[in-house]
Amino acid sequence: MEIRNTQILMEKDALARHLGIKLLEIKPGYAMGAMEVRPELLNGVGVTHGGAIFGLADVVFAAASNSHGPVALALSVNIQFLKTTELGAVLTATAREENLTRKTGLYRMEVRDQKGEVIALAEGLVYRRSGSQ
Q1: How many whole angstroms separate alpha carbon 32 and alpha carbon 63?
Q2: In angstroms, rounded to a whole number, what is the distance separating the alpha carbons of residues 44 and 124?
Q3: What's the total number of domains in the chain?
Q4: What is the pTM of this model?
């Protein structure tokens, strides 16, 4: 799967569309995406729902990890929420490859607000189905 195929695959992601996530850049081992916080993305106390933030991090994780060709599926993701955001915030997430083997890939994701402040950090591990480096 090449970058173009990754873009087509990501366009089929129904949850990403539902959350309003737009992929801004995909290159080997890297992806960037953005999402505006809408009313339906707020939790009960009026801040951005952790699931929406996780969803944004997960979408760029998927794009970056699938950018090499072999299908990559998440084995685990760990996320830390560092700061809250509110209605109207524009969140940008990046995923960067930290390690790539024939069968696995390790990625670091950062989610930032429109001021550039880090609101969440995540790390994800994928299994590469038919991987070859």
Answers
A1: 9
A2: 27
A3: 1
A4: 0.91
